[in-house]
From TrEMBL:
Gene: gltA_2
Species of the source: Rhodoplanes serenus
Keywords: Transferase
GO biological process, one term: tricarboxylic acid cycle
EC nos: 2.3.3.16
Protein name: citrate synthase (unknown stereospecificity)
Residue ranges crossing the lipid bilayer per the database entry: none
Gene Ontology molecular function: citrate synthase activity
Signal sequence, start to end: none
Enzyme class: transferase
Length: 278
């Protein structure tokens, strides 16, 4: 018999996240009635995922990251899918789930990739050394490593819609404020900016600005979130936009609304008309 099979029913789903019994709910030891009205949603996200309530500056940074990524319009696959699903007669939860399931490595996964990249660069720094020259050396080495693995695009930089993503500078400014106050190290903001500089130097001075994934990646890295958890944080944020768009679409009179207007037909690239063989 395996060790798992020997577990008692209470130990089968043992968890450090929630304690509950009739008349009592505690998250990480805190009574829910004490948390309600005293902590915000971002603080609850931090508490449940990290085990402790965050300091106020950390909570402010996390909330800023969550606010920044809530929506990017129907040109974003997740939002478009939420709206299309709603016109098919499904429930709002189905529409949200369908939308969230599109958030993968290409759409929605760059934040996780950024944090992993920032961490790899930080790991290249000699212990206790964080000067600009050392950071530039570490960034250069890691970008070379990406190139050697066949990775052409540095995650978190450039945007197919925005020449300069308006969300990134504001988020970085908040990180700078927190670093100046001693709330975060500022190391990952420095790494993020140095990546932009190194890439620009390799492109003859043409800059590829940091985008929302890079900027939120800086925040998540500064706050110490593990890379896989960062994708979940993006999902939490974008869920708000998916909910809003699904609800708005439910108020329209469209039924079975596809990705292109019905008076337009896709381009066919297959064989011309032909007869079925006898």
């Amino acid at each position: 018999m395996s060790e798992r099979a020997k577990l008692s029913p209470p130990d089968w789903w043992a968890t450090s996240i929630i304690e509950m019994k009739p008349g009592m709910i505690r998250y990480r030891g805190y009574a829910i009635e004490d948390l309600i009205g005293r902590v915000g949603f971002a603080e609850m996200v931090y508490l449940l995922t990290r085990g402790e309530l965050p300091p106020k500056p950390a909570a402010r940074l996390l909330e800023a990251a969550l606010v920044a990524a809530v929506d990017h319009g129907p040109q974003a696959p997740s939002i478009a899918v939420a709206r299309m699903a709603m016109t098919c007669g499904v429930g709002i939860n189905n529409a949200m789930a369908s939308a969230i399931n599109t958030l993968g490595d290409v759409h929605g996964g760059a934040g996780e990739q950024c944090v992993a990249l920032f961490g790899a660069i930080a790991a290249r720094l000699p212990e206790g050394v964080r000067d600009a020259a050392a950071i530039t050396t570490a960034v250069t080495a890691e970008i070379d490593a990406l190139k050697a693995r066949g990775i052409r695009h540095v995650p978190g930089y450039g945007h197919r819609f925005h020449p300069l993503d308006p969300r990134a500078p504001r988020l970085l400014a908040l990180v700078d404020e927190a670093a100046a106050a001693g709330a975060v190290s500022g190391l990952y903001a420095a790494i993020g900016r140095t990546i932009e500089d190194v890439v620009a130097a390799r492109r003859g001075g043409k800059r590829v600005p940091m985008n929302i994934d890079g900027a939120t990646g800086v925040i998540f890295a500064e706050l110490g979130f593990p890379p896989p958890l960062c994708r979940g944080l993006f999902v939490l944020s974008r869920s708000v936009g998916c909910l809003a768009h699904a609800w708005e679409e439910s108020q329209s009179d469209y039924r079975n609304k596809g990705p292109i207007p019905r008076d337009q037909i896709w381009t066919y690239t297959g064989p011309g008309p032909r007869n079925v063989p006898e």
